[in-house]
Design goal:
Helix content: 55-70%
Strand content: under 5%
CATH class: Mainly Alpha
Low-confidence stretches: 129-134
Number of helices: 8
Mean pLDDT: 86
Number of domains: 1
Structural class: mainly alpha
Order of helices and strands: HHHHHHHH
CATH superfamily: Globins
CATH architecture: Orthogonal Bundle
């Protein structure tokens, strides 16, 4: 049952906007030596999954879930060592993509808050260990 209110997905322009967001984000990742090394050689499958996930998360069609099931973001990202630096770089590129695509307020703030929260949840290694205090 829907409330009749437009979803964030609809308010930002639907699928074309999310495709552009993912394309801009991945172009930034490709130019980032630290992050690029964490991604597979072929970026196309990841781009597709990210676009479908974001569209679904923000109120669009549930194509991601129908094809892949529950997102399980932490589980899907666990094989990759994600420390604070990688998280910060990922977030910086995603927020830059949101700005470059021109997402307007208040949707911009909603998306930024989600990306900040979700990126913190993906950290799975602590690379800031103090050598003096094992």
């Amino acid at each position: 049952m829907t409330s009749g209110e437009p979803t964030l997905y609809e308010l930002v322009g639907g699928e074309p906007t999310f495709k552009q967001l993912v394309d801009v984000f991945y172009a930034l990742v490709e130019a980032d030596a630290v992050l690029r090394s964490l991604f597979p050689a072929d970026l196309d499958p990841g781009k597709r999954w990210q676009q479908l996930f974001l569209m679904q998360y923000f109120g669009g069609p549930a194509e991601y879930q129908s094809e892949r099931g529950h997102p399980r973001l932490r589980m899907r990202h666990n094989p990759f060592p994600i420390g604070h630096e990688a998280r910060d770089r990922w977030l910086s590129h995603m927020l830059a993509a949101v700005d470059q695509v021109g997402i307007a307020e208040p949707m911009r703030s909603t998306m930024r808050e989600y990306f900040e929260f979700a990126s913190r949840a993906m950290i799975n290694v602590d690379i800031s260990l103090n050598r003096d205090n094992p």
